[in-house]
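On clarity, I found the account of how folds are encoded harder to follow than it need be. Since the whole study asks how a given chain folds, the encoding of that fold should be made plain. The format is easy to grasp once an entry is in front of the reader. For illustration, here is how one protein appears when written out as sequence plus structure tokens.
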Amino acid sequence: MRHDIGIDHDLCIGAGQCALTAPGVFTQDDDGVSTLLPGREDGGAGPLVREAARACPVGAITVTPRAG
């Protein structure tokens, strides 16, 4: 199942839990803010993406199933 992944960059504190949990989907930019790796916007690594969202200490990541 594919997902839509959102990162609220205003909330992100750069803890890096998402990149540690799902390194094939998330990374951190030069400022330490979480971002999606190019081509991973659909979150193909489903369970790891959901776990990364749960691991975010400030709730900056949202994961919603994509319809269709």
Remarks:
- The chain has two helices and four strands.
